[in-house]
Design a protein that fits this description.
This protein is of the alpha/beta class and 220 residues long. The protein has 5 helices and 13 strands. The chain has one domain: Metallo-beta-lactamase, Chain A (4-Layer Sandwich), CATH 3.60.15.
Length: 220
C-alpha cells in the first residue's frame, strides 16, 4: 500500500515501499523519479490520490539512472525525461547492467530515454518554485540532488538517506566522489531531506548531512 505525505502546498511525497523509489510531485506537473514501474497501477493510483493527473505530468526529473528510479518513466507518455548527462547514456543505450535492471529480473527496453540533459547549477522552474540541480556523483556518475532554497528542501535521491549515505559498491559507484558530494551538501542550508528511499527528514537536515559526511570520512 502506498503512503502520501503533503510536504507543503507545492510538494507531495509518495512512497510505494519495497524496492521502489520514493517519488515527489512538484506543483502536480513535475515528478521526481518514477519507481521501477513494476507496479504501474499502484503508482498511477497513488498519483491520482495525491491530486495529480498522470497524463498532465510535464517533466520527470531523474536523480540517477538505476532501474528502481527510472523504470516507471514509460507510464508518463506526455512527459519529458530529464537526467544528468553522465547517466543519460544508460537510458539511451538501454543498459541493463549499469541500470541494474537485470537485478530486478527486467530490462530497459521500455524505459524512455532523456529528452533533457541536466547540468550542475541549472535551475528548474515550476511557477514560483525553483529547483537547483546539484551534481553529486558517487552512487552513480550522474547522480544529482535537487535543492529548493525557499523552504530549504533537498531531494537527495540515493546520495543521502535519513540515516546512511548512498552505496558505493555498485557498478559506476565511487567512494571518493561520494565523500566529496557529501562535503558539498554539508555546506548547504538544509531543513528537509526527501530521499530516494525510506523515511523523510522533516527538520534539521543540516545535522543529518554533517553526521553522514563525518561517518563516511572516518570510515575511509
Amino acid at each position: 500500500m502506498f503512503k502520501i505525505v503533503k510536504i507543503n502546498p507545492n510538494i507531495t511525497a509518495i512512497s510505494l515501499g519495497g524496492v521502489d523509489s520514493n517519488v515527489y510531485l512538484i506543483q502536480n506537473e513535475i515528478l521526481i523519479d518514477a519507481t521501477s514501474g513494476l507496479r504501474p497501477e499502484t503508482l498511477l493510483d497513488a498519483i491520482k490520490k495525491a491530486g495529480a493527473k498522470p497524463q498532465k505530468i510535464k517533466t520527470v526529473l531523474h536523480t540517477h539512472c538505476h532501474f528502481d528510479h527510472v523504470g516507471g518513466n514509460k507510464l508518463f507518455e506526455n512527459a519529458s525525461i530529464a537526467i544528468h548527462s553522465k547517466d543519460a547514456t544508460v537510458l539511451k543505450n538501454k543498459d541493463g547492467l549499469a541500470s541494474y535492471a537485470v537485478f530486478f529480473g527486467n530490462d530497459m527496453s521500455t524505459v524512455k530515454k532523456a529528452d533533457i540533459i541536466l547540468a550542475d547549477g541549472e535551475k528548474i522552474r515550476a511557477d514560483n518554485l525553483i529547483l537547483e540541480v546539484i551534481h553529486t556523483p558517487g552512487h552513480t556518475p550522474g547522480s544529482i540532488c535537487l535543492y529548493e532554497p525557499k523552504d530549504k528542501i533537498l531531494f537527495s535521491g540515493d546520495t543521502v538517506f535519513s540515516s546512511t549515505a548512498g552505496r558505493t559498491d555498485l557498478l559506476g559507484s565511487n567512494e571518493t566522489e561520494l565523500k566529496n558530494s557529501l562535503k558539498l551538501l554539508s555546506k548547504l542550508d538544509i531543513n528537509t531531506i526527501l530521499p530516494g528511499h525510506g523515511s523523510l527528514v522533516l527538520g534539521d537536515g543540516n545535522a543529518v548531512i554533517k553526521k553522514l559526511e563525518k561517518q563516511v570520512r572516518e570510515l575511509s
